[in-house]
Design brief:
alpha/beta, D-Maltodextrin-Binding Protein, domain 2, 2 domains, 10-stranded mixed beta sheet, about 45% helix, globular, binds fe (ii) ion
């Protein structure tokens, strides 16, 4: 009997030692992540995070606006530890709704450049995307393109498409123009742009590229990653569209191309702040950044990590140098102006 007890005790001791070698494996630590991302490769990263830290990750996936509403309604009872959403405008609204708490982390300071995070550390960028000009090479030559501002020239009348003003990507673009040009000039710019639209704004970003290929328009204003997604689509027409169009980074000699981020913050009422911070540290790490960004053909936020070959083939570009929080701060005014000048 004594021998059996001794064997059991030794077995338990050795199991505990093994668990210790791998951090907290075997413990029941877990965090809950609210995210709008739904890529298979993300799960591999969460599994790797669990392997490294012993912290299990429960995912709640939904649209960004639904997750924000859900967290606001849940208040102090929210199970969320981390919120991951796209667009600095949305990240800013989540901050305004008091959904995040500031965190301090040397690792995050190292991984995330200052201009890709909230000034008060409420959220940190995870990936970056650019809102570019996508054109048909048979009807437009790159030498004719220069800036967002130049799209108001009468030569582009009836030749430009983009989505509606209810879309946050266009609201953030408009906010950036307000920040750079001032309210009045931004209003003049938007008015001139709308005058050159080929049709009433409609559809998603992919539909804008399709309109360029089908001859409805010659230039689309859209996000870079949709080209990557179309080139890798299971729909042969989307692949054809992706292969036909060309990308132009506007404002390279002036104020830079409009960029935006997806980002993550620790939830205001998280009871696992340390573990939640560890996840964001991991997602911005050299190990995770490449595959995390590649899943949606976005640019890594961590400057030591190289982007996907497709993105490299488009060349490097200069980005707008404005605090991303401004995109959120101007978003209400941006929407008002867009409505007033008839950007549907
Ligand atoms: Fe998108």
């Amino acid at each position: 009997m004594k021998k059996i007890i001794l064997t059991v005790v030794l077995l338990l001791v050795s199991m505990t030692l093994t668990a210790c070698q791998f951090g907290n494996v075997g413990s029941d630590k877990s965090i809950t992540v609210y995210t709008e991302r739904h890529y298979d490769t993300d799960q591999l990263l969460y599994d790797r995070f669990t392997e490294l830290t012993g912290i299990e990750v429960n995912l709640i996936r939904d649209d960004a606006d639904k997750l924000i509403t859900k967290m606001s309604n849940e208040g102090e009872d929210s199970p969320a530890d981390v919120l991951i959403i796209a667009d600095a405008g949305r990240l800013h609204s989540a901050k305004e709704l008091d959904l995040f708490q500031p965190v301090t982390s040397d690792v995050l300071d190292e991984n995330v450049p200052n201009h890709y995070k909230d000034e008060e550390n409420h959220w940190y960028g995870l990936t970056m995307r650019a809102r570019v000009l996508v054109y048909h090479p048979d009807r437009v030559s790159a030498s004719e393109l220069s800036t967002y501002e130049a799209l108001t020239d009468s030569k582009w009348e009836g030749r430009i498409v983009t989505r509606t003003s209810t879309n946050i990507y266009n609201q953030s673009l408009m906010s950036s123009m307000i920040e750079i040009m001032g309210e009045e000039q931004a209003r003049v710019w938007a008015t001139g742009l709308v005058q050159n639209f080929a049709r009433d704004p409609q559809g998603n970003d992919r539909d804008q590229a399709k309109a360029v290929v089908s001859g409805v328009a010659d230039i689309a204003i859209m996000n870079t990653y949709y080209i990557g997604r179309m080139l890798n689509s299971s729909d042969p027409y989307e692949v054809e569209v992706g292969e036909t169009v060309r990308i132009f980074f506007p404002n390279q000699e002036t104020t830079g191309t409009h960029i935006n981020v997806s980002g993550a913050g620790v939830a205001k009422y998280s009871k696992n702040v340390e573990d939640a911070t560890k996840l964001i540290e991991f997602l911005t790490s050299e190990e995770a950044q490449r595959s995390y960004a590649d899943a949606n053909f976005e640019y890594p936020i961590n400057p030591v990590v190289e982007p996907h070959d497709l993105l490299k083939s488009w060349g490097t570009f200069i980005a707008q140098d404005i605090p991303l929080s401004k995109l959120g701060e101007h978003s209400v005014l941006a929407t008002i102006i867009m409505n007033e000048i008839g950007w549907k």
